[in-house]
Amino acid sequence: MSVVTDPRRSSRLRWYRGSAAHDEALLRVDPGRQGCWVLRAGSELDAARQPQFCALLDRAVRSGAQVVVLDLRGTDFLSIRLAALLGPAKANAWQHGVELRLLIGSLEVERALELAGVRPLFRHYSCVDDASEHPVDV
């Protein structure tokens, strides 16, 4: 179990119990967009979810889609280890002709991306519609 301070409530601590690989629907695909996969993450993306996350991301990149959007707006916790994987994942996607894009909602996720050094690699998008637009723009 880890603890993270919440900068919005400095007197409170937020506890993250960790997660098991079998937890309920942590990553879901939104199939309703032509040429685009939207991966919706659960509330926590930690080391226990890394194998499933990497497998789904790889599947999305190899699907023939032009754009893969990782929607982290509902994510409260993103491990730095998993955040660091997004840099090589973006490069791998680009080699397959796919643009990997992020939607970020919480300050905690934004901070994890900054600490991992990958935040500058991704453009800011405000909604899924904007992020899923074509063409590939790297």
UniProtKB/TrEMBL annotation:
Highest taxon in the source lineage: Bacteria
STAS domain ranges (all copies): 38-135
Listed SUPFAM superfamilies: SpoIIaa-like
InterPro entries: STAS_dom, STAS_dom_sf
Protein name: STAS domain-containing protein
